[in-house]
């Protein structure tokens, strides 16, 4: 009895377990297959995204020679490429390394040197030339791009317009500046607050600086209120603090004095630290929110 009972139990177990085992195998196989393809799809997705981001960082063509996009009859067929470094979001400031060649910078200096005059300031109500004479101690000259006959300034102006996507007509004449030992520009805003300067037809929305020389020491362009820091410390406008951009021949610095909503950016306060060693040459272009009639 014992043995018959045992035999039939084993047989029943065998009959029942074979299909169950087969079904289980199928289920595990399918689950494994589905799971692995899901994981590999996920991998593929993230590697596509990574590739895309990488490409976007390198430039649309990932560093290879770009092919011009369909540009129609009136479009522009040229592709420009720029390296840039976003230095700050508050204020919006971006550096373009090697924006212009040494030869271009030197042609601009050679043209400007004999025209230099002590730099002037726009005066607020109640201010005089005498009461403001220590604020900006550089010398400078205003030059329209077409006046410089090697074409260096014309080329720079065109490239600036492409880099900013703000038409050339919005730019004032270049202000070419030279700072010698100890010379500086105290921190200030490029926008003209109507409360202090009276009604304005347009505003300087952005400034583009092309450094024409290296500087041995000092002469950095500074942003003391970067990230809205130091706003409430009773900041002395002579002090050289905050974000400092060291001039390097051929590099260009663009910063916006106005926010995207059209209001003044408090963080755009800036100035030039005193030159300690060497000379600083810089070509400044103030870019207005309307075309400029006096350029
Ligand atoms: O020389 C510099 O670095 C700054 C010049 C400047 O602030 C200006 O021209 O408004």
Describe the overall structure.
It is found in: Endoplasmic reticulum membrane. Residues 169-289 form the Fe2OG dioxygenase domain. The chain crosses the membrane at residues 12-34. This is Fe2OG dioxygenase domain-containing protein. There is one protein chain. It is globular and about 105 Å long. Helix content is 29%, strand content 21%. The protein has helices at 2-58, 102-112, 152-164, 194-197; strands at 85-89, 92-96, 117-118, 139-143, 174-179, 185-188, 204-211, 217-218, 221-223, 243-245, 252-256, 270-272, 275-277, 280-288. The model is unreliable at 1-12, 35-46 and 56-62 (pLDDT under 50). The protein is α+β, with helices and mostly antiparallel strands and 295 residues long. The strands form three sheets. An eight-stranded antiparallel beta sheet has the order 1-2-11-7-14-5-4-3, with helices on one face. Strands 6-12-9-10 form a four-stranded antiparallel beta sheet, with no helix packed on it. Strand 1 (85-89) and strand 2 (92-96) form a beta hairpin. The chain has four helices and 14 strands. It has two domains: 1-58; 85-288, q2cbj1_9rhob like domain (Jelly Rolls, Sandwich), CATH 2.60.120. The chain binds 2-oxoglutaric acid. Residues 177, 185, 190, 209, 221, 270-272, 282, 284 line the site of 2-oxoglutaric acid.
List the helices and strands and how they pair.
Layout: H1 2-58, E1 85-89, E2 92-96, H2 102-112, E3 117-118, E4 139-143, H3 152-164, E5 174-179, E6 185-188, H4 194-197, E7 204-211, E8 217-218, E9 221-223, E10 243-245, E11 252-256, E12 270-272, E13 275-277, E14 280-288
Antiparallel strand pairs: 1-2, 2-11, 3-4, 4-5, 5-14, 6-12, 7-11, 7-14, 8-13, 9-10, 9-12
């Amino acid at each position: 009895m014992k043995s018959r009972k045992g035999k039939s139990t084993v047989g029943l177990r065998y009959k029942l377990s074979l299909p169950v085992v087969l079904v289980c195998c199928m289920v595990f196989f399918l689950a494994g297959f589905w799971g692995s393809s899901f994981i590999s799809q996920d991998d593929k997705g993230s590697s596509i995204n990574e590739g895309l981001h990488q490409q976007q960082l390198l430039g649309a063509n990932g560093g290879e020679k770009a092919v011009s996009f369909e540009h129609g009859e009136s479009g522009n067929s040229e592709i420009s490429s720029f390296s840039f470094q976003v230095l700050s979001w508050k204020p919006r400031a971006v550096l373009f390394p090697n924006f212009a060649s040494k030869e271009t910078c030197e042609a601009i200096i050679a043209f400007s040197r004999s025209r230099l005059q002590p730099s002037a300031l726009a005066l607020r109500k109640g201010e005089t030339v005498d009461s403001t004479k220590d604020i900006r101690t550089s010398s400078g000259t205003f030059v329209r791009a077409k006046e410089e006959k090697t074409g260096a300034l014309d080329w720079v102006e065109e490239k600036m317009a492409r880099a900013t996507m703000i038409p050339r007509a919005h730019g004032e004449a270049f202000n070419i500046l030279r700072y010698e030992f100890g010379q500086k520009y105290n921190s200030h805003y490029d926008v003209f607050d109507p409360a202090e300067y009276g009604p304005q037809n347009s505003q300087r929305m952005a400034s583009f600086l092309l450094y024409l020389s290296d500087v041995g020491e000092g002469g950095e362009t500074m942003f003391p209120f970067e990230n809205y820091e130091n706003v409430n410390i009773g900041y002395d406008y002579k002090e050289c603090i905050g974000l400092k951009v060291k001039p390097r021949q051929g590099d260009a610095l663009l910063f916006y004095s106005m926010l995207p909503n059209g209001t003044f950016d408090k963080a755009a306060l800036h100035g030039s630290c005193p030159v300690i060693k060497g000379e600083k040459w810089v070509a400044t272009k103030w870019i207005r929110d309307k075309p400029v009639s006096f350029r």
